[in-house]
Design goal:
about 200 residues; 2 domains; two-stranded antiparallel ribbon; 11 strands; elongated
């Protein structure tokens, strides 16, 4: 029988190793839990809803508002501080204003207006979209689908930018199902907060 004692430095190194291993396991478990909780559709598909779960019942939402994150290319439906649904989106392209990059989408707090419709086409921009809802200047700034051409067909090259990069002239582009759902469900007067996050 061997009665040799393990040197103190070896015992500490074993403890450090097991503490490190425990930390790694906790991080891996947290990552798996996060992946399992994620309901965002990947890869992004402009022809499908952004999440793989049902849209929320807005009649049950007490403090509904929308947060648009321009740099993240996300539009969040909120109930107070809680996000209840996340949509892939693309806001205004960034351009130089006095040496600063500024989005064509104005930031600030706005409210959903009465104007909404099934389609439009802007001859000046040579671009249209479907299922629009106004949030500023009564038809100037909108939530709507990814863009369409003069024939009403979706511009696939532009559609591929959804959720990946700012791409619009100032409106907020959404997937086709997300825009249809908002068009049918979003109440007039809903607060919309647009930021550069």
């Amino acid at each position: 029988m061997n009665n040799k004692k393990i040197p103190k430095h070896r015992r500490n190194s074993n403890r450090n190793f097991f503490a490190f291993l425990a930390l790694v396991l906790v991080i891996v478990a947290a990552g798996i839990a996060y992946i399992e909780k994620s309901v965002m559709r990947t890869p992004i598909d402009w022809q499908k809803s952004s999440e793989t779960v049902d849209y929320p019942d807005l009649k049950k939402v007490e403090n509904l508002w929308i947060e648009v994150r321009l740099k993240s290319n996300r539009t969040l439906l909120k109930d107070g501080n809680k996000t209840i649904y996340t949509m892939y989106s693309s806001g205004g392209k960034y351009h130089d204003v006095d040496g600063k990059q500024v989005s064509y989408t104005p930031t600030g707090t706005y409210y959903i207006e009465n104007e909404r419709g099934e389609s439009f086409f802007n001859n000046k921009l040579n671009e249209g979209a479907r299922y629009y809802i106004s949030w500023l200047n009564h038809g100037e700034y909108l939530f709507h689908t990814v863009p369409t051409n003069a024939q009403g067909e979706y511009n696939v090259e532009e559609c591929k930018k959804l959720g990946k990069q700012p791409a619009s002239h100032g409106c907020i582009r959404l997937s086709v199902p997300d825009a249809i759902w908002l068009y049918n469900n979003l109440p007039v007067g809903t607060k919309v907060v647009i930021n550069n996050k």
